[in-house]
Amino acid sequence: MFADQLTQEQRQVVFDLAANLAAADNDVSEEEIQYLKDFSDAYGIEFDLDKADLDINNALSLMDTKKARVITLQELIKLSYKDGHYGREEQEKVLLLAQKMGLNNTDFLMRIENWVRQGFDWVYEGEQMLEGDD
Question: In this structure, which topology does domain 2-130 adopt according to CATH?
Answer without folding.
Answer: TerB-like (1.10.3680)
